[in-house]
Amino acid sequence: MVHIYPQKGVREPVVIKGNVEGLWSLVNALISAIAHPNTSGIAEVFCGDAEVYEVVVNLVTTHDQLSPLPYQNHEVI
Questions:
Q1: Neighbouring-strand partners of residue 52
Q2: In this model, does residue 56 exceed pLDDT 60?
Q3: Containing domain of residue 69, as a range?
Q4: How many domains does the chain have?
Q5: What is the pTM assigned to this prediction?
Q6: Which of 28, 29, 34, 58 could form an SS bridge with 41, CB 3.0 to 4.6 Å?
Q7: Mapping DSSP to helix (H, G, I), strand (E, B) and coil, where does residue 28 land?
Q8: Over 70: is that where the pLDDT of 35 sits?
């Protein structure tokens, strides 16, 4: 179980809470993105109310690849 809480405001932290299995799924997604740069690392996570969602990790090599931010264009990656 993992829950990722978004920022509450500018310069506020993102908070990640989870049990061991949930946090390992995030670690594995990060490692997978680094080990296989042509694919995305994906973690299927559950939040406290049992909603399932994916966390997608992409490795980028330039600052330009970080833009545009998905929430600025209302697009989902």
A1: 46
A2: yes
A3: 2-73
A4: 1
A5: 0.74
A6: 29
A7: helix
A8: yes
